[in-house]
Amino acid sequence: MQHATDLTEQEPKLSAVPPKRPDPVKKKAQLKKNLIGWAFVAPTVLFVIAFIYYGIFYNAYHSVFSWDGISFEKTYIGLENFGRMFSDPEFYNALKNTGIFTVLTVTIQAGLGLVLAYLLHTKGVGRTFFKSVFFFPVVLSPVVLGAAFSQIFDFQFGYINEFLRMIGLGAFEQNWLGDQDVALYSIILINIFQWTGSSMIMYYMAMLAIEREVFEAANIDGAGFWRTLWSVVFPNLKGTTFTLTILGVIGGLKTFDIVWISTQGGPGNSTEVISTYLFRKSMLHQEVGYASAVAIILLIIALGITYFQTRVQKKMD
Asked: What gap in Å lies between CA 165 and CA 156, rounded to an integer?
């Protein structure tokens, strides 16, 4: 016992290691590096705050007022704007037209873009020329396209009806932008004409990442054009399809220029979409408080659709 006590007494006592103080030079260098980084992102952050988040809070604030957008006086009315909106048949009509417009344009543009991209991906003559031709409408202004198709779809002197009369199919001529049953689908056709080239280019660039051996194996197995497109190409482009869907939905919710140039929401509100409805209430009827409430609901719809699409994508992955 004595020996054990002596050994214990002979053990050196461990002293606490003092904490290492940060190097002031390195701390200053890191701070400078962080400031430089913030300096680069500051313009973008300020832009987002000024033109996006400020606009959201601005609309949310004015959605509880009755205001014409000009006078200094605002009357607080609480949630009356939202109650009025949800009881307005014109709002539901605009919402329905926006849904039809979005679903058809997203689906058809993606389908045509995929087929065109696969056609141009295969070996052939004039691929560069046809890529330019199909992509050319994308760079045109929607105002120009709207004005041009207003002439093309004209009932009396439009090129489509003139062509139908010339080939003896005059019975099929339509008042493309003046018939309530046809006008919305005519505008959808204009939008598809403009943006199919964008879908084609995105699919084409994604196809370049697919190994050539995959196509050769499908060819050896006897898969034809459509079988290869559906069973080989499309499954490998799910990410591109998802991106195009998000972009198409956002574009459908905010589409305005083509509709306004072509029909201004008519005839009889048959082509009225959410954006033209909002514009009409805020700028033409000077009901800014009510239009702010519509804008808030539109934002909630967009966020909900984006969240749903993101969840679906995660499950697919």
From this structure: 11
